[in-house]
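Entry — protein

Goal — fold tokens:
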Amino acid sequence: MKPDHQFLDDLTPTSNRVEPAEVVADPDALSWDESCDMLVVGVGLAGVCAALRASEDSALDIITIDRGEGGGASKLSGGVIYMGGGTKAQKEAGITDDPENMANYLSFETGDIVRPETVRRFSEASASFQDWLETYGARFGGPATEQKTSYPNDASLYYSGNELTVPGRERATPAPRGHRAKPEGGGEPTKLSGQYLLPPLLRSMEEKPNVRFFRQTRATRLIVDGEGAVIGIEVQRMPSGFAAWRHSKAMALVNNIVASVLGLTSKLQGTIMKLEAEKTRTLRIRVRKAVVLSAGGFTYNRAMMAKTAPDYLKSHPLGTIADDGSGIKLGMSVGGQTGSLDRISAWKFLYQPENWVKSCTVGPDGKRLVGEEYYGARTGEAVFSKAGGKGWMIMDQPLQQMVQEEIDGMDKMLFQKIQFRATQKDYTVSAPTLEELAAKIGVPADVMAETIHSYNDHIAKGEPDPLGKSEKYRRTIDTGPYFATDIGDSLKVSPIPALTMGGLLVDEETGQVLSNEGGIVPGLYAAGRTAVGVCSHYYVSGLSLGDCVFSGLRAAETIRDNSGTSALVNS
């Protein structure tokens, strides 16, 4: 075992030190506070799926731990799971899809981040995700929508990726696969659906007689035997009482956007760190079969991001403060390989309103920035990696009017109302001519004017869009006054949120962490954003949560069946 100590000492106000692994020659001679067959670190969607699947074997004794109350970034998310190939919701909506068709499309998004056979297994397995999740209380279904949207307020099944774009259509027949979780009792959703998805799954997990859930518990060190196999873990657990109550309240508030706007985040983080340093007690837990690391990514560890993805430091962390890289660093402490740590998904949606897609985007050089129809992660990548954090949507008077009318007619959540108002009032400027508009935003006037002229010329001549925009979203921009809406990285009320996509490398058939010495790290698995997965190349809505289900089930099935392979391999 050759531990990789890179990043182990990276500390920010939200990150905690991961200690080097403890090597124990005789595990039976060590004093243990608890014991179990399988231990799950981090109970977001990947962790709860791993625990639930493993618990279906009543002989397995399982402990799950979470720094907070459970749910993680998954609970704060939009609650959209990318699944297809013929799910129940797709069939009920009259949508035709099959695993081969789904895999053909996903090859466009996944690139070579995972093997083609892994994409196929994911596509085949995802057809059954809905049925399995619904046995534990989650709810999905219709109606479906054809609308181009980043998040469907009035629908529960939608095109959540680039299926309808020109390259998407070239590879597969488009099918909506973004399944938004629905309220348990029926009725219309009134909040982000992660809050409908995780609570029933967590309740089901806690009802399992062979699962114990340790809240407010943070993993700090893995324990290995003389051969390097993981045989236990050291954690810091908050005892019940007033300190635990304060910790719980602070954890619930620290990731709230209102707290961020009011400047309370740092104070809350300080409270959490102080309580964890002063009030927790150390426990050693003997683990007989395996530890599953599903503790999220590292978007809140800016020191780690500065080393791996410095272009994205002005992004807004999307997740919880527990996304500090500690799960990844635990794996590294025992020689686990990492990959794609530079891959970030930063989202800047040019929809909704859908009419924003009809704009022409430009960067600081005045040249076209990105195909406006693509999923927001590609726009975010262009803003950060290509344009130094700057970008604008260019519109003319008729298009700006269409955008405003669409916004006025939308049913909006509170955060959408705040962001749309700021975007239209504070982040949009206008001028009578394109040249004057270019001067206002500080880009070369002649270059921007030529960009818009070329954009219009392709439309007038009936030529395909050079960046692949669909015909339905193309219209000339030629009637002043002209408008520029900022889509850069410095907008306080409309920031570009981001999460990390890289992590520990795993055996794609079993979920076991790969060793930097070759082979695997015995007794160690990784899932969700602690691991590299199907969403780690190009992210589309729901693909991370879909991968959380897939990778959580994969790890649990391998451990449960004790066969060295997962049932998903042959699903």
Remarks:
- The chain has 19 helices and 21 strands.
